[in-house]
Write a structure and sequence with these properties.
alpha+beta, 5-stranded antiparallel sheet, 19 helices, about 35% helix, about 20% strand, aspartyl protease
Length: about 675
Amino acid sequence: MAPDELKELKTQLQEKLDKGFIRPSSSPWGCPALFVEKKDQGGKRLCVDYRPLSAVTVKNKYPLPHIDILFDQLGGATVFSKIDLRSGYHQIKVREEDIPKTAFSTRYGLYEYLVMSFGLTNAPAFFMYLMNSVFMNELDKFVVVFIDDILVYSENEKEHEEHLRIVLSRLREHKLYAKFSKCAFWLKEVAFLGHILSAKGVAVDPSKVEHVLNWKQPQTVTVIWSFLGLAGYYRHFIKDFSKIAKPMTALTQKNAKFAWSSKCEKAFGTLKTLLTSALILAQPDITKPFDVHCDASGSGLGCVLMQEGRVIAYASCQLRKHEIREIEMPTALEAELYNLVLEPTIKDQIIAAQRQDKGMARIRDEIHDKKKACFKLDEEGVSWFKNRIVVPKDMELRKKIPDEAHTSMFTLHPGSNKMYQDLKQKFWWTLRHTNPQTSGQVERVNQILEDMLRACALTYSTKWDECLPLAEFAYNNSYQKSLEMAPFEALHGRRCRTPLNWSEPGERVTFGPDLVTQAEEQVKFIHDNLKRAQCRQKSYSDKRRRPLVFEKDDHVYLRVSPMKGVHRFRVKGKLGPRYVGPFKIIEQCGPVAYRLELQPHLATVHDVFHVLQLKKCLRVPEEVVDTSQIQIQPDLTYEEKPIKILDQMQRSTRRTITFYKVQWSNHSEEEATWEQEEFL
């Protein structure tokens, strides 16, 4: 501190000691002291930088009133008085155990406050709570309070006299003292919280705007923020404040280059001019109607609140980038809107199909007769199964719903299990049990192609993918017993030319009725050959096949398969259990399906199975597999997981390979396998 400040510090410390505001301290706390300029009569006020203390203080969330809301209560007032408390914070004592926390260090020692000090983080909130408690019955009737500033307002002088008497008696009752030099009574126009209040309305305080008018051109983003913060305090006096200030606010954006342009200079000057010529805003009367005038552009929004032709307040805001895009997008797509065709939703299509389906009419009759307890009708007559809508027997609609759930842009191929879970929450229709099997014909063709590729790769010493064209040509040009010709001849009506198969030159029919007749005869010939081949192949298969027939109360094993989630080196799950059970047959459901009596932990598995999934139980004890130890999924699969590492070894060839002896779930240690590290 400067010598004159040290002198002032000693004087104020002695004054506070004499008044009993502070006392010498030995507290472990301590914050630095500093001076700030006083508004009235000059001089300096001793303050303490309590930021370290505020950082560890539990904050008081008591709200401070919004200044605009305070002014809204003054409608119809013509007489005003303002009262400012003398060092308001110092009129509140600090709790004894909290006094050491207020300690502050100076050139002349460590002191602590016995009363509430300026700079404490909870001081404004607590003082606001105190003032509201004191004037709770008078608030918004003829008194508004903002911390230690009190405004008394009345419609006439007679009422004002009574209102002043009540306010002063409240202050005396609670021993709160005002500073007479900062008070003013019986005023027609009063300066309060940076505004001029009168019977005409609310205006800008010229003394507060003077600093804005003397502001020099900003050179940094921080200075722009300071200017906009001060000018923005009076933004409700300026029409389209946000639009005018946009060139300046653009400089404050992240990664924006600071370049003061002519637009910024114009906005800077316009804001200063409008602040000096700001209108007087009228006080609102809630008993009369309001008018709201709105304006919008591609960069901002603005509105004016008016009453009986007088402005109550202005409001404006700038649009962010995503909001601007939302405005521009409808404009860019305006022409496309005329081409849109509204189609009924999936639900509307189901409702329409229900009303046209005869089977749904029978279901509705049974619902009315209370024969179907799980079904219900809503107010529109739509049939529901519990909380799922019933889809009628419309194959096109039943195909459309899974397609929408699978290929829609809102789902993007979620997978069969997830798609099923999504559909079963909203839709219901009857399904038939299926037993999907692999296509033996396709597998046989693949086997032939593999043999061809293997022979080609070995013969010509090349890669198998380079042999694909040769294998394709050879297969299509080779004789097929089922067709009694080559596939190429069946498609084109002639054999393909090769070194061993040539055609003699001559005339050939390439168009006309004779060609059509010849093609039809060829197609009929191929169909007959395929039917004979199917019958022949069926007879071969039936020679070694006998129908599987079970009786009620028989016991059978149920076939399960391991999931592909774990790759087992060389073993590939062959040691895993293939059958679980045995289970008792309850009934026969059709010629090739049986219902089994499953255990409670298999409740998620459907109890009807195809005969190919069953094996006769001969009551051999060692074949019985405990199903409670295997977590079988609804699709009859289970997952094999490594549960224990029993041993380790390394093999060195060109590189060192680490192997682990792994025990798998559902298997004993004797069934452990050696697995390569990279496959675990």
